[in-house]
Amino acid sequence: CGSSTSRPTTTISVDPSCVPAVGAFTATVSFRYFGAARAFPVQVSGTGPQPIDPNQISFAAAWDGTTAGGAPQVKITTTSSYDDPTLASLHWTEALTSDQAAGTSCGSGTQAPTTAPAGIDVAIDANACPTTAPDPGGNAPTFTLTITYTDPTMGDTHTYTAVVTGTPPN
Q1: Beta pairing partners, 124
Q2: Residue range 38-63, pLDDT digits in tens
Q3: What is the Cα gyration radius of the chain?
Q4: Which of 111, 120, 112 is nearest to 77 (CA)?
């Protein structure tokens, strides 16, 4: 799971894939003294990093009026057993798309989400993705949020999607 050739005291980087699989860690200090090999196993104390359980996080997205500049915006709220500082320790990306503007980014961000009711707002580029113009069949556009996090400690990436609810501002 990790090793070092440095003299003690040293820090050993642990392969993140070992953390969920191994409960307790042991470090073995080995050396040669006057030609004789010696090794001492030492129990590692403390608490190692814990992976984030993606099943403990969910998202909702709803229209939330307009920005100060008049752009429509979507509020993203999070329900999670993790607190806001834990969520902020992850690397986030938010992307909004419309079924009527295929391949177009309608809005994006990199803010860490916060738990409900606060949430975060992401502005929509209404020029690229009109919020109220129906398609030729008369259907209003459907906007979808895709939100992704990467856990920098464990290296895991998880993606969620949510359909934006409510009525977009005019």
Answers
A1: none
A2: 898 988 887 777 788 999 999 999 99
A3: 24
A4: 120
Peptide bond preceding 117 in cis form (omega within 30 of 0): yes
Instruction: Residue 8: name the closest of 38, 34, 31 by CA.
Output: 31
What pLDDT sits at residue 21? 57
| Gap between the terminal Cα atoms of the chain | 56
The one-letter amino acid at 17: S
Three-state secondary structure string covering the chain: CCCCCCCCCCCCCCCHHHCCCCCCCEEEEEEEECCEEEEEEEECCCCCCCCCCHHHEEEEEEEEEECCCCCEEEEEEEEECCCHHHHHCCEEEEEEEECCCCCCCCEEECCCCCECCCCEEEECCCCCCCCCCCCCCCCCCCEEEEEEEECCCCCCEEEEEEEEECCCCC
Tell me if 77 sits within 8 A of 84, measured CB to CB. no
Structure tokens at 161: 């999607």
Q: What is the distance between the alpha carbons of residues 157 and 147, in angstroms, rounded to a whole number?
A: 11
